[in-house]
Design brief:
By secondary structure, this protein is of the alpha+beta class. The chain contains nine helices and 20 strands. It starts with 9 loop residues before the first strand and ends with a strand. Bound molecules: adenosine-5'-diphosphate and magnesium ion (MG).
């Protein structure tokens, strides 16, 4: 990547743009070159132009225009681009897509916990405030997120656990970050247990059975919001769009010219990209140890924690999941980061429609064989790709 592009979010180029997110680059470059080449005689071109003129414009499909918006939601920069016929439709599509993010954030943000009116307290905060006290009635969306999360907790032997809140608080990322003592960790770990999240499907209630338990949906909510936004866009008839919510990417349809979206996987230790996946109608979600972290005494402490130890998961430095559901891909990117490559491949191979690209501390890139045809490596950064 040319150095001049670094740190810039969107760069418009002659035939396209490059969009830069926290973890991923997305770009498309449409070219009209091919169209302009040809061997038509000037007479034929003139004849065609005349024909077009007399046929009028009614039969010509409306040209798609590009509309983009960026907003800071869910602690991350969300960038959405849609392609549609006119400005009115573009604005409506973007409004609804961002509403989806706002809505999911309002339900799940555990720090939305202030004020006297209930609308200022998220459902997740209500559940947390009532830990060990009583079940809390919640929306279908919150219930679905928690059921999906618990399903993968079960499947991963607890590597993914949304009751990680008390341990996250101990490390205090962004606010009071420091390495906690082992005794504190052990105490907090006693409160981390997904099997103590009691979900009642009939009553639509959730109950944390131990006082002090605390849900943190940071590993799944952006994925769920992405799916929500995608479904809103589809309902509006949008056939080409791309969403990037801080590394949670969804490529809706193809690019307007019919070719695949090209999603870049960021170098976890440097600027630039290490690989490009070419996709349509899938989520590409990346978890890395470089987004939220601090250093202390020469050690690097990041935000993806192993519920078995209460400390950092260290078998991977970045995990990308390519799959149909952004919710699932978000959960899996965090889960596989904790599990590491060996157990991670074991798990993902059992699931249909999910591919994985692991970047390990030794600079190996281990990737699912099934994605080989849609994955290219840039040879940047000295990584060694190995198909699994
Ligand atoms: P990001 O939020 O940066 O996109 P992830 O999707 O990997 O990254 O989610 C990391 C977040 O998930 C943490 O900030 C925390 O809120 C939560 N989390 C950390 N460890 C776990 C875990 N083992 N299980 C479930 N959630 C976790
Ligand atoms: Mg995740």
């Amino acid at each position: 990547m040319p150095p001049a592009w670094k740190g810039i979010n969107i760069i418009y180029k002659r035939h396209g743009f490059l969009l830069r997110g926290n973890y991923a680059f997305i770009y498309w470059v449409g070219s009209l070159k091919g169209l302009l080449h040809g061997y038509f005689k000037i007479e034929i071109i003139l004849l065609l132009l005349l024909l077009l003129y007399f046929m009028g414009c009614e039969q010509k499909p409306a040209e798609l225009q590009e509309f983009s918006r960026e907003k800071f939601i869910m602690n991350t920069l969300v960038h959405i681009t849609v392609f549609c016929a006119d400005e009115h439709q573009g604005a409506k599509a973007l409004d609804e897509a961002f509403n989806a993010f706002e809505k999911v954030n309002d339900l799940t943000d555990r720090f939305k916990n202030q004020g006297k009116t209930t609308s200022l307290v998220s459902e997740v905060s209500k559940i947390n405030n009532n830990a060990g006290i009583s079940p809390v009635r919640v929306s279908d969306d919150t219930l679905t997120i928690l059921e999906r999360s618990n399903y993968f907790s079960e499947l991963s032997g607890g590597a993914f656990d949304v009751s990680i809140g008390p341990i996250m608080d101990l490390w205090g990322f962004g606010s009071n970050q420091h390495v906690p003592g082992q005794e504190e960790i052990n105490k907090a770990l006693a409160l981390v247990d997904y099997s103590k999240i009691k979900i009642d499907d009939d009553q639509n209630t959730v109950f944390l059975t131990k006082p002090g338990m605390c849900l943190d949906l940071g590993g799944v909510s952006k994925g769920y919001a992405t799916d929500y936004a995608v479904s809103a866009l589809r309902k509006l008839g949008i056939n080409h769009a791309i969403i990037n919510a801080g590394g949670n990417v969804y490529a809706l349809g193809t690019k307007p010219d019919g070719s695949l979206w090209r999603v870049g996987i960021q170098d976890p230790r440097d600027d630039g990209i290490i690989a490009i996946v070419s996709v349509q109608d899938v989520a590409v979600v990346t978890s890395g140890d470089y987004e939220r972290y601090f250093t202390q005494g020469g050690g690097r402490y990041h935000h993806i924690l192993d519920p078995a130890t209460g400390g950092q998961a260290r078998d991977a430095i970045q995990v990308t999941i390519v799959g149909d559901s952004a919710t699932e891909a978000d959960i899996l990117s965090t889960t596989l980061f904790v599990l590491g490559p060996e157990k991670g491949f074991n798990m993902v191979n059992k699931l249909k429609n999910n591919d994985v690209v692991f970047v390990c501390p030794d600079k190996q890139i281990l990737y699912s064989n099934t994605i080989s045809n849609n994955l290219t490596f840039t040879a940047e950064g000295g990584y060694q790709p190995v198909a699994k």
